[in-house]
Specification:
Blueprint (H helix, E strand, L loop, with lengths): L12 H7 L14 H12 L3 H26 L2 H20 L7 E6 L2 H9 L8 E4 L4 E4 L1 H4 L9 H7 L4 E3 L3 H18 L4 E4 L2 E5 L1 H8 L7 E3 L8 H9 L35 E4 L2 E3 L4 H16 L3 E6 L2 H10 L5 E3 L4 H9 L11 H9 L5 H6 L1 H7 L2 H11 L15 E11 L2 H22 L3 E10 L4 E12 L2 H19 L6 E11 L2 H8 L2 H13 L4 H11 L11 H12 L7 H9 L15 H5 L3 E2 L6 E2 L4 H15 L5 H20 L17 E7 L19 E9 L2 E8 L27 H9 L17 E2 L6 E2 L4 H26 L47 H8 L1
Parallel strand pairs: 2-4, 10-11
Antiparallel strand pairs: 1-6, 1-10, 2-3, 5-6, 7-9, 8-9, 12-15, 13-14, 13-15, 16-17, 18-20, 19-20, 21-22
Helix pairs in contact: 1-3, 2-7, 3-14, 4-16, 8-11, 16-17, 18-19, 26-27, 29-30
The structure holds a DNA duplex.
DNA sequence: ATACATACC
DNA sequence: TACTGGTATGTAT
């Protein structure tokens, strides 16, 4: 097949057509000179970085297709037969249980943003126009579509297609207002309607139709709006030319599937139940499904002066396809009847089906599938080539099946923010942008009372290559500082990974996911973590952030950015303040002076970056090669690799591979080099390496690390390696100027290194900076290792993590009790402060393209208050060591 | 769990 | 000059 072959030159038209070519399968784009349009688009885009990237992506798709075709070639007749039997069985079941009892309606506002702008500015009505910017259009009006101008096209290209194009900037507030008006109408037909965006919604009209049967005529009578403030004149004009289909109109005439009604005419013109103008300016709608939807659309138009299209079908998938059928300002119904569904499906191009985009379309095309009939015929093959979810979906589609009950989506799963800009390569700018994003995101999260466990950084370089880097933390994040403390490490890794080249970015984004459910949130809310946060916020409330930084400088060890955000850091800071036995060493002081202590809040501080350079080398305890990359993750990865080869020590290949790794890394050592042998250089001259395997029971198996350099401990945590739900903890002792490790003098050689993923990673790196103050969780394993409590830093003679947890709990409780005492002394009745994470309503975050917003404003509000429970610090910590 | 891709509006 | 932003989900590792 053609697509199974590699595409020839990148300049080949095929790839271009695929990625860049005009997408004309939308309404308003029929009968265009596609060739001419494509030529213009091509000229405008060819050679650009964007285009180059598109070609690259296209090649990836071709590769996928190639692989698929190879797989296909290996399939035997027998396999296909078997597959067919299986698939047929499922198909029969699906067909059997087909539910045709619901009347699902999909409402889609026509060229929504553009229509709003045209409504509000008569000058735009008779000119091709689009909403958006020179960089990106959200939507275009139908006049512009004639030129090939459409949504998701950059404005500057649109201008080439249509020099007269008017581009109007987005005006979301307005669209939201209009959308609200529309939704008010929808709610009357289905209070549980499902908004998909500002301009789209699903309704289940089944109930309404039952009621409608007993609905007296006067309740189905609606009046034409007679005056429309600013546009009244135009409306009148338009009412006179009722035959013109294309005009924006307040007339019911445009219900395409019934003959135009003259306003003065009384007679029902179509079926008996059809809408009727019984008196001047009044329209009576019948009881049928179609009439109900016409009525609904009529009311939308009367209310907003905007038209909507609708699809009516027994399920959501079909309804969605139908709403496109007679767009604009039309509706289409598939009767609730199996044959009607199958007839409709028969020639339906798969691309029309929601969920089948250009890639899937192309892949299926390679298999000779373009219509739903093809899809059904190839069902056995598809079951062999695609994942279960995929081919099930294909089968559903080919049977005309879809969801029959619309339900509001559950809890949101992620929240993110991202920004595009031009070529940014300075690291300090990147960090401060990252921080800004975190700040924005934190604000959004606060509105919904969200706390998440995974932070993802997204970057797109100037070549349009996208990378995402994620990190999951043990506790949750919600504040700007918390998110940033994770995000900045991810960014740091990216920057360092690209070094010595700068990262040249065009976009950066931050996402938080893995939200705590209500239960977990409550749990956390009463936990000490939040308790401390609240306390922190309280005490800093009137302080500016630089003040906070400054105060940290005096109380915290030079742990680097974000150090104050770690729970244990906080704990230790408190301890340090209270405990006169802890001194800051001279070394630490000098570090204090040199290292940026900024939490990163002071964004423009160029010093902020210096600690990334400060310490560049780590020595791998397995291969003894110096690793230049100060990025701990990379370092860990390296060790993982070394270890996994070690595990196959007898394997010649494995050995070779280790050598390869060593060789590959050797040159690096010479080039990047560490900063002129400062005391910051991390020397892990290994005295012994222990690998211990710990069974991990659950997936919150990340162990926490404590790297806070507040004592003279000398151990460094190195790595955990995952394999089959087990973790190997590599233990490494650090040699410190002949000092004997203090905390475990009886077993100085064995120290458990526990990695902390995520959040706490920064502290690992901080440790790099503070050479003389290594600190670990050390442990006695079997008989000779013990775990060190991260709070009191004392070795607990146990390897049992739950035992250690108990101890940590106690340790923590001590602190809490102290704090409570203080608290009571200073504020007598401050319990309410615990409440600060309160609200959990869903904000609506509608934005952007012609459509957005998964949330309706109509969502049920939840009680916004949470009782400040008596503190129960215990559980939060448990998690750390599970 | 992470990374990357696809899809939708 | 210039090719989005937010969310969910699928695919692959």
């Amino acid at each position: 097949m053609e697509s199974s072959k590699k595409h020839d030159a990148p300049s080949g038209d095929e790839a271009f057509q695929f990625r860049m070519g005009l997408n004309d399968n939308k309404a308003g784009m029929e009968g265009l000179d596609k060739e001419k349009i494509n030529k213009i688009i091509m000229e405008a885009t060819k050679g650009s970085r964007f285009y180059e990237n598109e070609l690259k992506k296209d090649e990836q798709v071709n590769l996928r297709i190639e692989k698929m075709m190879q797989q296909k070639a290996q399939i035997t007749e027998q396999q296909l037969k078997n597959s067919e039997l299986q698939v047929n069985k499922l198909a029969a079941e699906l067909d059997q249980s087909r539910n045709l009892s619901r009347i699902i309606v999909h409402i889609d506002m026509d060229a929504f943003y553009a229509a709003v702008e045209m409504r509000d500015n008569p000058e735009l009505r008779n000119t091709p126009m689009a909403v958006g910017s020179m960089s990106m259009l959200s939507t275009s009006n139908y006049l512009a579509r004639r030129f090939g101008v459409r949504a998701a096209m950059p404005g500057f290209i649109a201008k080439k297609l249509c020099p007269g194009l008017a581009i109007v900037p987005l005006n979301f507030d307005k669209y939201r207002d209009v959308s609200k008006q529309v939704r008010e109408v929808l709610a009357e037909y289905d209070p549980n309607f499902l908004p998909m965006s500002l301009d789209e919604a699903y309704l289940d009209l089944t109930e309404h139709l039952k009621e409608r049967n007993n609905c007296p005529e006067d309740k189905r009578t609606y009046f034409l709006r007679t005056d429309t403030a600013e546009s009244s004149k135009v409306s009148e004009d338009e009412l006179k030319v009722t035959e013109v289909e294309d005009t924006l109109s307040t007339s019911p005439v445009l219900f395409e599937d019934s003959p135009p009604l003259s306003l003065e005419r009384d007679a029902p013109t179509c079926e008996p139940q059809g809408e009727t103008v019984s008196m001047k300016n009044a329209v009576i709608f019948g009881k049928s499904v179609e009439d109900a939807v016409k009525e609904l659309r009529f009311r939308i138009e009367q209310k907003t002066t905007l038209t909507a299209s609708a699809g009516i079908a027994p399920n959501m998938m079909l309804a969605k396809v139908c709403s496109d059928k007679n767009k604009p300002n039309g509706q289409y119904r598939i009767p609730s009847d199996r044959q009607a569904v199958m007839d409709f499906i028969k020639d339906l191009p798969i691309r029309r089906v929601p969920g089948i985009g250009k890639v899937t379309e192309k892949m299926l095309k390679a298999l000779g599938i373009t219509t739903c009939t093809d899809l059904y015929q190839q069902r056995a093959l598809l079951a062999l080539l695609f994942s279960e979810t995929s081919w099930h979906n294909f089968l559903d589609i080919s049977l005309g099946l879809g969801s029959t009950h619309i339900e509001r989506d559950g809890e949101r799963k992620s929240m993110s923010t991202e920004r595009t800009f031009n070529d940014m390569w300075k690291a300090d700018e990147q960090y401060s942008l990252c921080q800004e994003l975190c700040s924005d995101l934190a604000q959004d999260m606060l509105k919904e009372g969200l706390k998440g466990k995974t932070v993802t950084l997204k970057v797109k370089n100037v070549k349009f290559e996208v990378r995402t880097r994620a990190s999951t933390v043990l506790s949750s994040v919600s504040t700007q500082e918390e998110i940033f403390s994770v995000a900045k490490e991810l960014l740091r890794a990216e920057i360092e990974g690209a070094s010595p080249q700068p990262l040249r970015l065009r976009l950066m984004g931050v996402r938080v996911s893995g939200f705590l459910n209500e239960e977990e949130k409550k749990h956390h809310q009463i936990s000490i973590i939040n308790f401390l946060k609240v306390r922190n916020a309280e005490s800093n409330f009137s302080h500016s952030q630089p003040d906070e930084t400054a105060s940290r400088q005096s109380t915290q060890p030079p742990a680097g950015k974000g150090c104050g955000e770690s729970f244990f850091n906080k704990k230790r800071a408190v301890r340090q303040q209270n405990d006169s036995k802890h001194f800051v060493t001279g070394e630490q002081k000098s570090q204090c002076a040199r290292l940026p202590i900024s939490t990163g809040i002071a964004t423009n501080d160029p010093l902020m970056l210096s600690d990334t350079i400060e310490c560049q080398s780590l020595t791998c305890p397995v291969c003894f090669q110096k690793q230049e990359n100060s990025n701990l993750e990379a370092f860990n990865r390296h060790i993982d690799q070394c270890l996994s080869w070690d595990a196959y020590n007898d394997d010649a290949d494995g050995k070779e591979a280790v050598e390869t790794i060593r060789e590959a890394q050797a040159p690096l050592n010479n080039t990047v080099g560490n900063k002129e042998g400062t005391a910051d250089e991390v020397h892990i001259s290994s005295m012994e390496t222990n690998v211990l395997t710990v069974n991990q029971q659950n997936d919150s198996d990340k162990t926490m690390v404590d790297t806070q350099p507040n004592s003279t401990d000398n151990f460094v945590v190195i790595n955990t390696q995952q394999s089959n739900s087990k973790k190997k903890y590599v233990v490494q002792e650090k040699e410190v100027d002949g000092n004997v490790p203090t905390s475990n003098t009886h077993h100085p050689q064995n120290h458990l290194a526990i990695e902390v993923p995520s959040n706490e990673n920064e502290h690992l790196q901080e440790t790099e900076d503070v050479t003389e103050t290594w600190q670990t969780c050390s442990a006695t394993l079997s008989e000779d290792m013990g775990l060190v409590c991260p709070v009191c830093n004392l070795c607990q003679k146990t390897t049992d993590l739950s035992e250690l947890n108990k101890h940590v709990d106690i340790c923590l409780n001590k602190g809490i009790i102290q704090e409570l005492k203080k608290e009571r002394m200073f504020h007598n009745n401050n319990g309410e402060h615990l409440n600060s994470t309160g609200t959990s309503g869903r904000g609506q975050q509608d934005l952007n393209t012609e459509t957005r917003a998964k949330r309706s404003g109509s969502s049920a509000q939840q009680p916004a208050s949470k009782k400040p429970k008596p503190n129960n610090p215990k559980h939060t910590i448990d998690k750390f060591f599970k």
